[in-house]
Amino acid sequence: MAGTLWTSDFHFEGGRVKVRATGADLALDGGLATDCVLWLGYYIPVRLLSVCIRIVRPGPRIWFAPGIPRPWYLIGLASLWAGVRFARSPDKADAAFYFEDRTFGAPPACDLPRRYNFACPDVSKSHVATVFERVFGYPLTIDPTQWTGTAVEKGEDNGAHDGRLVTCPCPALPGRVYQRVIDTVDGDHVVDLRTPCVGGSPVLVFVKRRPVRDRFANYNSTVALTRPEDHFTADELATIGRFCVAMKLDWGGLDILRDRADGRLYVVDVNKTDMPPLRLPWLQKMDAVARLAKALVKMINVPSAGGRA
């Protein structure tokens, strides 16, 4: 990620590409080519706008560590839109931002008063579930040896999309977590509420829909940009905010599911290096980046809104 050229982030071999930071292994096929085209439609206008913004209204200086986020991450796009100037060291920065696309991170030392995500190195599934139960007051995880019925089995790593349905009771495999099945089925699709949060508050919601048979896949049939108030009550928004504080998450996307059976919310994933959903209509992409850029600048300009050490 700290390399000068973007190609340094990838390893190409045998018709596949591996992302060095995360270990993701992707096929070089038409689907990946389509995603690249969609991303370019996202990136190019944001990049052009950022040149103008830095001249007319330059944004804050941020030291990203251990590396500057590439523009396929939401924080990278929002930083460009906000006219952020990337500082080479903390002594030349207004604020510091811990950015490392890993499930278990190791933030570098930093004594800047305005520092973000430095206290959120662990976004593993088990840690997220533990914090979720403490804040929301009801569990997500189950004991597969005692549970009867269907459950979700998945790995600890963030962004692995390796979930599968299993029938319980069953043995608990090492390195796997087990969660109750959250019913979000709407017709022949499941619905996820990806909720980017900045400074401890939800900023917007991406409503993601995919076929039931592909509920754990890393693609969406459709995505729509909506407001948090369209989906969450005032009490739920406050609880989501307390969850962000408990996770010590200053910036990141929450995967929130609402169970059709009991109406409750479940935070099943926390991604502090979240990426934009490519299936979002173009105008909504621009709107989302603008909202997130505004929230980013507000968080930095108001120390009490973030910077949890």
Structural class: alpha+beta
Oligomer: single chain
Mean pLDDT over the residues: 89
* Main pleated-sheet profile: 7 strands, antiparallel
Tally of individual domains: 2
Q: Give me the number of helical elements.
A: 5
Task: Describe the fold and architecture.
Helix content is 26%, strand content 27%. The radius of gyration is 19 Å and the shape is globular. Strand 8 and strand 9 (164-168) form a beta hairpin. With 309 residues, the protein is an alpha+beta fold. The chain contains 5 helices and 17 strands. Helix 2 crosses helix 5 (282-301) and helix 3 packs across helix 4 (234-247). The strands form 4 sheets. Strands 11, 12, 13, 14, 15, 16 and 17 form a 7-stranded antiparallel β-sheet that branches. The protein has a 4-stranded parallel β-sheet with strand order 5-4-6-7, with no helix packed on it. A 3-stranded antiparallel β-sheet has the order 1-2-3, with no helix packed on it. It folds into 2 domains: 6-116, no CATH class; 125-140 and 183-305, D-amino Acid Aminotransferase, Chain A, domain 1.
Which descriptors apply to this entry?
309 residues, alpha+beta, D-amino Acid Aminotransferase, Chain A, domain 1, 2 domains, seven-stranded antiparallel β-sheet, four-stranded parallel β-sheet
